[in-house]
Design brief:
The chain is mainly alpha-helical and 315 residues long. It has a single domain, classed as Amino acid/polyamine transporter I (Up-down Bundle), CATH 1.20.1740.10. Helices cover 72% and strands 2% of the residues. The chain contains eleven helices and two strands; from the N terminus they run ααααααααββααα. A two-stranded antiparallel sheet has the order 1-2. A hairpin with a 2-residue loop joins strand 1 and strand 2. Helix 1 runs antiparallel to helix 8, helix 1 packs antiparallel against helix 10 and helix 4 packs across helix 11. The protein is globular, with a radius of gyration of 21 Å.
C-alpha cells in the first residue's frame, strides 16, 4: 500500500509540473495563439533526457537551479507587492469563502507541505543524521513563514482579483519574463519526483537485475537498460497524458493533497503509530492520534469530492 501511495504522489507531482509549465508557456506566448496541448508536447520533449538519468548527481544539480529560480521569482513578486504598498487595504482580507473552494484549498495546503515522501532518502544521505529533526523543524518553519508572507502580500496587493497563479496579476510587460522563469523552475523540478518514482517502480517491477539505472548493456557499463527505459518511458508518458486531461493545476494540487497528501501526512502515520505502540500509549496519546486521523479522513474525503466535481465540470 505504501508503495502505491508513494508512486501516486510522485506521479501527481510530475503531472503538476507539466501542467504548470504548459499553462505558463501558453500564457507567455499569447501573441502566437499557441494551444496548451502544443506547449505540453514541448515540455514533454524537453523532459525526454530524464529517461537517461543514472544517479542523483544531475538531479541534485537541477534541483539546485530550481531553488535559485524559485528564490529569484519569489523575491521579484514580493518586491513588486511592497512597491504597491500604498494601495493596500485591509478590506481585501475578507474571510468569506465558498465551502467547496475552501475544501479544495485544504488539499492544496496539505500538498504544499508533503515533503515526507523525500525525507527517508534525505535522512539516509545526511552526514550528521542527528541533526535531521532540527533541520526538519527549521525548514518547515521557514517554508510556512515564506508561504504565508507571500500569499498575504499578494492578497493585500490585488485583493479579490488575485489569481490562482500569482504571476498572472503582474503587469503585462513583466509577466512574460516571470512566467518563463516559472516554466524553467517547473521543468527543473520534474526530474526529482520522476527519478524517485522510477526507482520505486524499477525496484518493484524489475526485481534487482535490471532495477538499477546503470547496467551492463550494449551502450557500455553505465548505459541504461531497455527494461529501465520502458518503465521510465511509461511513467513519463502517463504524466504527460494526465497533464493533457487536467484543465487547472490548482484542482490537481487539491486532488493530490486530498488523496495521497492527507494519507502520507495525517492518516498513515497515526494508523502506524497506533498499530505499533497501542499498548505503550496513554489515553492522551491515543486520543491525539485518533483526532488527527479523523481530521485527515474528513479532509481527504471532502477535498476529494470537491476536487473531482470541479475537474469533471472543467472537462
Amino acid at each position: 500500500m505504501h508503495v502505491a501511495v508513494q508512486v501516486i504522489e510522485l506521479l501527481m507531482m510530475c503531472t503538476l509540473y507539466l501542467v504548470v509549465s504548459a499553462t505558463l508557456l501558453s500564457d507567455s506566448l499569447w501573441w502566437t495563439a499557441v494551444p496548451r496541448s502544443a506547449c505540453s508536447l514541448a515540455s514533454f520533449l524537453f523532459l525526454l533526457p530524464c529517461l537517461l538519468l543514472r544517479d542523483l548527481r544531475p538531479v541534485s544539480t537541477l534541483s539546485m537551479l530550481c531553488s535559485l529560480a524559485h528564490v529569484f521569482i519569489s523575491l521579484l513578486v514580493i518586491l513588486y507587492c511592497l512597491s504597491a504598498a500604498h494601495g493596500w487595504s485591509l478590506s481585501s482580507l475578507s474571510l468569506a469563502v465558498e465551502p467547496g473552494d475552501f475544501l479544495v484549498s485544504v488539499g492544496i495546503i496539505i500538498f504544499s507541505y508533503t515533503s515526507q515522501i523525500f525525507l527517508p532518502t534525505l535522512e539516509g544521505s545526511m552526514e550528521h543524521r542527528g541533526q535531521f529533526p532540527a533541520m526538519l523543524g527549521r525548514t518547515h518553519a521557514a517554508a510556512c513563514i515564506m508561504k504565508t508572507t507571500f500569499s498575504l502580500l499578494a492578497v493585500l496587493t490585488w485583493g479579490k482579483e488575485t489569481s490562482e497563479v500569482i504571476t498572472d496579476n503582474l503587469p503585462a510587460d513583466l509577466r512574460p519574463f516571470v512566467n518563463l522563469c516559472l516554466v524553467a523552475k517547473a521543468l527543473l523540478s520534474y526530474p526529482l519526483p520522476f527519478y524517485s518514482a522510477a526507482q520505486i517502480l524499477q525496484t518493484c517491477l524489475l526485481r534487482g537485475t535490471a532495477a538499477s539505472a546503470s547496467t551492463h548493456a550494449r551502450g557500455g557499463p553505465m548505459a541504461v537498460s531497455r527494461p529501465t527505459l520502458l518503465v521510465r518511458g511509461a511513467l513519463l508518458m502517463t504524466s504527460y497524458l494526465l497533464a493533457l486531461l487536467v484543465p487547472r493545476f490548482s484542482l490537481l494540487m487539491g486532488l493530490t493533497g486530498s488523496v495521497t497528501g492527507a494519507a502520507i501526512a495525517l492518516i498513515l502515520p497515526c494508523v502506524f503509530h497506533l498499530r505499533l505502540h497501542w499498548r505503550r500509549l496513554g489515553a492522551r496519546e491515543r486520543l491525539t492520534d485518533v483526532a488527527i486521523l479523523s481530521l485527515g479522513l474528513i479532509c481527504s474525503a471532502s477535498g476529494l469530492i470537491c476536487s473531482l466535481k470541479r475537474l469533471v465540470e472543467g472537462l
